[in-house]
Structures are given as C-alpha cells and as structure tokens.
UniProtKB/TrEMBL annotation:
The protein's name in its UniProt record: ATP-binding protein of ABC transporter
Pfam families registered for this protein in UniProt: ABC_tran
Keywords tagged on the record: ATP-binding, Nucleotide-binding, Transport
Organism: Synechococcus sp. (strain ATCC 27144 / PCC 6301 / SAUG 1402/1) (Anacystis nidulans)
UniProt family annotation: Belongs to the ABC transporter superfamily.
Annotated SMART domains: AAA (SM00382)
The ABC transporter domain, residue ranges: 2-231
GO MF, one example: ATP binding
C-alpha cells in the first residue's frame, strides 16, 4: 500500500533522510521510530505530498506522491506535529469544513461526521469551540480531521506527544482500532509506545534506516543481560570476556575478593550455564547469577547511538 524507494531529502549540503526504502502492507500499522532529528517528520511530509523529495520515489496505493500529488492527498489522512486547527470554529463545524475540503459529498457528510465524532470520543465536545479544548481533546480533533474522509492510508506524526497517561491510552487504542481496516504509519521517539500499537517498526537514525522488523523480533535482538556476583582468588573478567556468545562484559563493583559483573550476550545466546561453569572451573564461587532481557528503551538507545565519524572525517588533534 505504501512503497518507499531510495527516498532522499537534502537540505543544503545535509541529508535529512538518505536512501530510505521500506514498504507498508495494506491494513498494517507501522511504527516509525527515531530520536529527535532522525527524519521522521520529513519522511511523513513527503508521503503526505506536503513537500517534494530531492531524490527517490514514494507511492501510496500505486500513486506517486510527487507526480500524482492530488490523487495521493485524496487517499491519505495526515496529522502533522502541529494539527492545522481553527481555534474559533466548533469541533463539528471544523470537521464538516475538512470533510468538504477533502471531497466528501454533501449527502455523505452527516454520517461521516457522526462516525468520526463517535470514534474519536468527541460527541460531548461537538459544539465546543476548538480554542476551549484541552490538549488531549485537540489531539483527538487532529486525529478526527485525518480520518473524517475515510481515507485508506493514515499518517500520524507523533500523535501522543504531550498527552497525559489516560489520553495516551485513549489515543493508542484509537490507533489500534484502525488495524486491518486502514494502513497507518505512526511516528514516535518511544519504542515501548510504538510496540504497544504496531506489530512492525521502522527505525531511523540520522536520516538512515537502521532496521525494519517485527517488534517481537527486536526484543530478541537484544541478547540477554546477566548480573553476577563472584568471589575467588582470580579476577574472572578476562575469562568471561573470551566466552563464546559474549557481547560485552563490565565490572560493576569490587570489594575485597568479590566482584559484581554485568554481561550482555549476543542476540539469542543464552549463556547462563556456561558462565556458571567458567567461574567454577577457575575455582571461583558464584553468589548470584541473574538474567534479564534488556528493555525496549535500551535496545532503542543501542540501535540509535550516534554514528561515529569515519576516521578520515575526524578532526585533527
Ligand atoms: N526545512 C528545513 N530546512 C533545513 N533543515 C531541516 C528542515 N526541516 C528539517 N530539517 C532538518 O532535517 C533533519 C530531520 O528533521 P525531522 O524534523 O524530519 O526529524 P524528526 O525525526 O521528525 O525529529 P523530531 O522528532 O525532533 O520532530 C533535522 O536535522 C532537521 O534539523
């Protein structure tokens, strides 16, 4: 339903996004994730036909976002970071205006409006001027304007920013309720949030695609975290470092002949038994061995760590 190929946006000498390629299938909810400045807004604006890309192509339901921008705009609902609301209008008048603008025929408008107000939990605010609404309700109106014309594709740019926990929950379940029926891209910089709403994520960092994967698989990519407390005559750090399947080892604390060590295994390598055997072989004693999955936040931070400069680009000392 959405096909992005080699999409690049250049701002002067800098590329805000570079060679992005991904697809979103019909009925899928895709989490679009990345830290601030990763290029999420730029990508969504291009997909919404709100700005042309410097290079590459993007198609929505087969229509090219650049060459067939009008056809694309009719088929998408777009919620930008700052929703385009008219503060003096009532919710109902505004949604009716948007429906007309988006080409909903007059006869269909009352039903589209009623359905949208209901779906977005806005029935009791229909006659309220937008300027009197709380942030959460404004966000609902923003979502409502994106779906009032019943588009097959919905693009939501950070729809949950600034909401309180209850509003967050409501907006998330609203987005979830679109699954299967609509194709949705929903951007965020919080992986745990995206994982609650979408089955698959695209992760961007500094304008480049880092990964596109099922959220479930992302969790498994992180390997395991171990924390062990060991005593003995010999510091076990070196021998643990050379163990098969180890990604990193760190000394957390040392008091006398006791060490507290944290260790991360490579993706899907369960090495608890090997750790215990190694300590025993070198005559040490294991007082504690704990195993955890890294949190989604840790995985996200690892995947989006700043990209180091090439040696040739490093400033001279
Ligand atoms: N009109 C513009 N002119 C120049 N640079 C821009 C412009 N718009 C965005 N950028 C730059 O492009 C990069 C990507 O910005 P973008 O807003 O797409 O990222 P983002 O992932 O949406 O970030 P955020 O989460 O902060 O909204 C940033 O470095 C930004 O400063």
């Amino acid at each position: 339903m959405i096909e992005v190929e080699q999409l690049t946006q250049q701002y002067g000498a800098r590329a805000a996004i570079q060679d992005l390629t991904f697809r979103v299938e019909a009925g899928e909810i895709l989490g679009f994730l990345g830290p601030n400045g990763a290029g999420k807004t730029t990508t969504l604006r291009i997909l919404a036909a709100a700005q042309p890309a410097s290079r590459g192509t993007a198609r929505i339901a087969g229509w090219d976002v650049h060459r067939q921008a009008q056809a694309v705009r009719q088929r998408i609902g777009y919620l930008p970071e700052i929703p385009p609301l008219y503060p003096e209008m009532t919710v109902q008048a505004y949604l009716s205006f948007v429906a007309r603008l988006k080409g909903v025929v007059a006869g269909d408008r009352p039903q589209r409006l009623a359905e949208t107000l209901q779906r977005c939990g806005l029935n009791d605010r229909a006659q309220t001027p937008i300027r009197k609404l709380s942030k959460g309700y404004r966000q609902r109106v923003g979502l409502a304007q994106a779906i009032v014309h019943d588009p097959p594709v919905i693009l939501l740019d950070e729809p949950t920013v600034g909401l309180d926990p209850r509003q967050l929950q409501e907006v998330r379940s609203l987005i979830r309720s679109l699954a299967g029926e609509k194709t949705v891209i929903f951007s965020s910089h919080i992986l745990s949030e995206v994982s609650q709403v979408s089955d698959r994520v695209v992760i961007l960092n500094q304008g480049r695609l880092v990964t596109t994967t099922a959220t479930r698989e992302l969790l498994q990519q992180g390997g395991w975290h171990y924390r062990l407390e060991v005593s003995g005559d010999r510091n076990p750090l070196a021998v643990l470092q050379s163990l098969d399947g180890v990604q990193s080892v760190q000394m957390q604390a040392q008091t006398g002949d006791r060490w507290i060590i944290s260790l991360t295994s490579q993706a899907d390598q369960e090495i608890g038994a090997a750790i215990a055997a190694t300590i025993q072989q070198q005559g040490g004693q294991l007082w504690e061995l704990r195993r955890d999955r890294p949190s989604l936040e840790e995985i996200f931070l690892r995947l989006t760590a700043p990209v180091p400069l090439n040696p040739s680009e490093e400033p001279a000392e």
